[in-house]
Amino acid sequence: MKVSFHFCFAVKESKYNEKSDIWSFGCLIYEMAALVPPFRAANQLALAVKIQQGKFAPLPEHYSKDLERALRCMIQVHYFTRVAVMLILLISVQKRFQQVESEKRPTIEQILALPRIAMKYREVRLNMKIQLLKHSEEELKRREAAIEEKEKKLEERFAALHVAEKALKLREQAL
User: DSSP assignment, residue 60?
Assistant: First the structure.
């Protein structure tokens, strides 16, 4: 079964956003390069499992390591670890400058120091941190709910044991 390019955010139950498009675009580029989709399976359930694992074969060797790294950044399982459009643009700007003479070519630090780019880059990094914090907070809430449920069950068991203990004491006194 072939991967649907919009299947990732449905599998992870996350909202559709710009990072969903980045995942889809990464899958599309991967398939164009490798001539097979990054995730293949016999049915949708097996496909969902493979997508959640986030593992796919490397590109054929005749492709650059830069393309391989870019695709690995784009086809991330968790949307908050997926590369942002701004970073993709920064990489393409840097590649374009590499064609210019080396002494005139700005470094990535110089590009990031440009006011508009620096502000957008900070915004992207902050948004990524916010998403990571939200994810961590949701995970903590799930854990807290599980602990509260366990505590409730323990209290019920303790109450049942207390009742049983009283019943045993009454039986002992009756004998």
Answer: P
CA distance 131 to 107: 29
- Rounded Cα distance between 70 and 83, Å, is 8
pTM of the model: 0.50
DSSP assignment letter at 80: G
How far apart (Å, rounded) are the C-alpha atoms in residues 146 and 22? 34
Kindly give the interhelix angle for 85-98 and 115-174, rounded to the nearest 10 degrees: 140
Maximum average pLDDT range among 82-86, 104-108, 120-124, 128-132 = 128-132
The encoded tokens of residue 133 equal: 């914090």
pLDDT in tens, 60-83: 888 877 778 888 888 887 767 776
- Average pLDDT, stretch 24-36? 85
- Classify residue 8 by burial, with Cβ atoms within 10 Å: 0-12, 13-18, 19+: buried
Identify the residue whose tokens are 């049915």.
43
